[in-house]
Design brief:
The chain is an alpha+beta fold. The protein is built from three helices and six strands; from the N terminus they run βαβαβββαβ. The chain has one domain (2-117). Strands 2-5-4-3-1-6 form a six-stranded mixed sheet.
């Protein structure tokens, strides 16, 4: 079982998309669900290099973060949401995806959809 648990050694923000996963049809939908809008600690997420789209503890996809922005200020955003943020990015390189995709987080989400690792 331990080989199924991710050893997270990169600066990562893990984002639980359980609530919006029912609408996911493809990888673009996973990106849209993962990228925003979130109440995050901007000082911490600015240090994150990758974002995980997580469903019930399973890492569905990894995205390389280009930047974090105020919610509603980027193309394809869900619209303005004061006090919330979203990121712009792309699917991470294969070597990063191979480390994390289809692996379980080492701990569970409890109440808050954001987990920070190494940032």
């Amino acid at each position: 079982m331990s080989e199924l648990v991710a050893h997270i050694d990169d600066p990562v923000v893990a984002i639980c998309i359980n609530g919006s996963y029912a609408d996911v049809r493809n990888n673009l939908d996973i990106y849209k669900c993962t990228r925003g809008t979130w109440k995050v600690n901007r000082a911490r997420v600015e240090n994150a290099r990758y974002a995980f789209g997580v469903f019930h503890g399973l890492i569905l996809e990894v995205f390389e973060i280009d930047e974090w922005c105020d919610a509603g200020t980027t193309p394809d955003s869900f619209g303005p949401a004061p006090g919330r943020s979203e990121f712009v990015g792309r699917v991470a390189p294969e070597r990063i995806r191979d480390k994390y995709v289809e692996k379980l987080l080492p701990d569970r989400f409890y109440g808050f959809p954001i987990r920070y690792y190494n940032c």
